């Protein structure tokens, strides 16, 4: 009966609630650094994974570009080999027969073709110089005017030298 009649006083009830709150805060404070540590580990792992994923992406792009370049270079080398092979092969059997009456014309044509090919570089250089002709003409005009000025000065100097020579002759004769 004493146990039944015994009631808890509001003072101790409040005390037990406070004790529970303190225990909960202690648990929270105890778990919080673990949660923070787990969060930072997760973030670090995520950022490393993201970085390596980006690296793999860029490496994959670079690898694809290199493969494309490699295929292009292989095609060029194959074409170069084929071209060399074709140039080395003799084409005598593949040429068209020419009638004997045209042999002289063909020989003349070939000699003209050879001379044209020999002079081709000079012809190309002449064609390349065509756009520069107005500039060259201006330079020639300027050079011509300078030459004329120098000629007049030379004539004056020549006259002065001749006068001086005459004066010297007169001085020596006197």
Automatic annotation (TrEMBL):
<dbReference type="GO" id="GO:1990498">
    <property type="term" value="C:mitotic spindle microtubule"/>
</dbReference>
<dbReference type="GO" id="GO:0051225">
    <property type="term" value="P:spindle assembly"/>
</dbReference>
<protein>
    <submittedName>
        <fullName>HAUS2 protein</fullName>
    </submittedName>
</protein>
<dbReference type="Pfam" id="PF15003">
    <property type="entry name" value="HAUS2"/>
</dbReference>
<feature type="coiled-coil region">
    <location>
        <begin position="66"/>
        <end position="93"/>
    </location>
</feature>
<dbReference type="InterPro" id="IPR026242">
    <property type="entry name" value="HAUS2_metazoa"/>
</dbReference>
<dbReference type="GO" id="GO:0005813">
    <property type="term" value="C:centrosome"/>
</dbReference>
<dbReference type="GO" id="GO:0007098">
    <property type="term" value="P:centrosome cycle"/>
</dbReference>
<dbReference type="InterPro" id="IPR028346">
    <property type="entry name" value="HAUS2"/>
</dbReference>
<dbReference type="GO" id="GO:0007020">
    <property type="term" value="P:microtubule nucleation"/>
</dbReference>
<dbReference type="GO" id="GO:0070652">
    <property type="term" value="C:HAUS complex"/>
</dbReference>
<keyword id="KW-0175">Coiled coil</keyword>
